[in-house]
Amino acid sequence: MKFGTKAIHAGVSPDSATGAIMTPIYQTSTYVQDGIGNHKGYAYSRSQNPTRHALEKNLAALENGKHGACFGSGMAAIDCVLKMLNPGDEVISTNDLYGGTYRIFKTIFEKYGIKFHFVGMQNADNIETYVNENTKLIWVETPTNPMMNIIDITATVKISKKYGIMLAVDNTFATPYLQNPLDMGADIIMHSVTKYLGGHSDVVMGALICNDDTIANEMYRIQNSSGAVTAPMDSFLVLRGIKTLHLRMQRHCENGKVIANFLAAHPKVDKVYWPGFVSHPNHEVAKRQMSDFGGMISFTLIGDKMEDAHAILNKSKLFALAESLGGVESLIGHPATMTHAAIPKADRQAIGVVDSLIRLSVGVEDAEDLIEDLENALS
Ligand SMILES: Cc1ncc(COP(=O)(O)O)c(C=O)c1O
Hints:
By secondary structure, this protein is of the alpha/beta class. It is 37% helix and 15% strand.
């Protein structure tokens, strides 16, 4: 099946009891057994639930993977990957990444004896410098949050395969509509389903997808043992949201292009970060590994003043001031004080998260209205 057909049909089938075309919300904690151990594949809803199961199959199909697992948040999904490691293991991670990912690495897993190296990966050769016998995981986010850096997944796969290191890719910004890291040889894909996959700003959820059976066994063992699972109602909402993923993503990309070009031509705007520009340092890589460039854009202001950025955030109306991204409605945020406040100032400035940096999640409204809103805010 092609992508749009999979988004609508993969993993779901009419309910066997009633013929309902929509997967029912199996709001149950347990399942009656005919005899001891004789159940219909579902024993207890932490271990498995039919609504969640349909979503896990759907997500696996969208990423061309064999196995999918859903979690109570994107962070819970990341937590699961890290729990596959042991004390003494080392991780090489993108240095420009979601602040919460940085926080869980530094403040939770460092305590349990895992060592992290945060590395600029725009040139994949940098990764190899940090590989040693303890390296067990490479963590890649691409496009990165919030600097929209592009990391070459194929080049990273070459390094991970050469040394037998597991490679996980946070595919939240790209979504499976734009980029399929498993096809390029990555081992695990992570999603904050909260964002584009859910798409309607009404669910917090995470997911992991993989092909390898050994990794899958670990993933399900940790999912069940740690218990950070997602709920049947939320699984239903995401199944519903995903049915329009391809349509929404198409519009996010179209609007993203229009807004990026508008900002690049605006006299008050200094730099615009969007992988669709030919001038983007890894535009050619983006063109090769993504089918389009998405609707996430960051930009800075001439003079780089925090108060100017705050004024714009307070003045925009259609672009709502809020954390998160990927919903149908446009959002505006200030990484330095919001999503990336967990990263020390010197570290965030070093990667480009300066005081005037503003991040946009361009929604699927009419582009003319979005431009008018930004024009008003900038003036
Ligand atoms: C790229 C990225 N990864 C992971 C996460 C964490 O996901 P969640 O908020 O669903 O826990 C986020 C959240 O903003 C994100 O942007």
